[in-house]
Design a protein that fits this description.
The chain is mainly β. The protein contains no helices and eleven strands. The strands form two sheets. Strands 2, 4, 5, 6, 9, 10 and 11 form a seven-stranded mixed β-sheet that branches. A four-stranded antiparallel β-sheet has the order 1-3-8-7, with no helix packed on it. It is globular. The termini are far apart.
């Protein structure tokens, strides 16, 4: 499965961005992660393609929304009320099998940079 992330950019604090992740095939779950240089990659959000399971890291709850368009095999991360601390490279990932949504992903897309700055 190949994953192609897009939609990053620069935005002022309080602004919004929508990231997209186009998948070449279906997995059990799709997740978004982010990484700041020198820091470990952080889980952000995940959703099963069936829609039955959903998870967010506490720092984005109420601001970010993960969704999928199963007809297009595309996942989205709608990011609202962005803060400077959301600045990172964002990655989408696919998990093949049932399990915790925060780890053990099998497929990774390239990153897309999100910069939140005034």
């Amino acid at each position: 499965v190949q994953l192609q992330a897009s939609g990053g950019g620069s935005v002022q604090p309080g602004g919004s961005l929508r990231l997209s992740c186009a998948a070449s095939g279906r997995t059990y779950a799709i997740g978004w992660f982010r990484q700041v240089p020198g820091m470990e990659r952080e889980f952000v959000a995940a959703l099963t393609w069936s829609g039955s399971r959903l998870d967010y890291v506490d720092s984005v709850k109420g601001r970010f929304t993960i969704s999928t368009d199963n007809a297009k095999d595309t996942a989205y991360l709608q990011m609202n009320s962005l803060k400077p601390e959301d600045t990172a490279v964002y990655y989408c990932a696919g998990r093949r099998t049932y399990g915790g949504l925060r780890s053990a992903y099998d497929y990774w897309g390239q990153g897309t940079q999100v910069t939140v700055s005034s």
